[in-house]
């Protein structure tokens, strides 16, 4: 299977696998937001340090995962890069959503 590489199939495979890496960051974000660890809260003055810490760890794991996919699919590297890059769109949406959960005072009770 190592030599059986087709562009669209590799793109879809890398996209799906990268989405699992991204989904793994969601529970970490909730744990980090609830724990209020000092080093995370020192990352930002407005209480969004857990978002920045999660995004930083996300970036490290995503770059490592990109390297693994480039090694896994040596003949289809552009397709692997395309699948990885496509997964950055939902990742950006999740980061904005996490930021709004922590920082935005959108829900007011009793008003």
TrEMBL record:
Residue intervals passing through the bilayer: 12-31, 51-69, 81-102
Keyword Membrane: yes
Keyword annotations: Membrane, Transmembrane, Transmembrane helix
Protein name in the entry: Uncharacterized protein
Organism field: Actinoplanes subglobosus
Top-level taxonomy: Bacteria, Bacillati, Actinomycetota, Actinomycetes, Micromonosporales
């Amino acid at each position: 299977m190592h030599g059986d590489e087709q562009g669209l199939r590799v793109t879809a495979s890398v996209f799906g696998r990268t989405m699992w890496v991204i989904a793994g960051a969601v529970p970490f974000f909730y744990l980090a937001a609830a724990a209020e660890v000092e080093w995370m809260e020192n990352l930002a003055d407005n209480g969004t340090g857990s978002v920045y810490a999660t995004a930083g760890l996300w970036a490290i794991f995503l770059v490592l995962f990109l390297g693994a996919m480039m090694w896994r699919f040596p003949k289809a590297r552009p397709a692997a890069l395309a699948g990885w890059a496509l997964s950055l769109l939902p990742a950006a949406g999740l980061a904005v959503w996490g930021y709004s959960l922590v920082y935005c005072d959108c829900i007011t009770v009793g008003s």
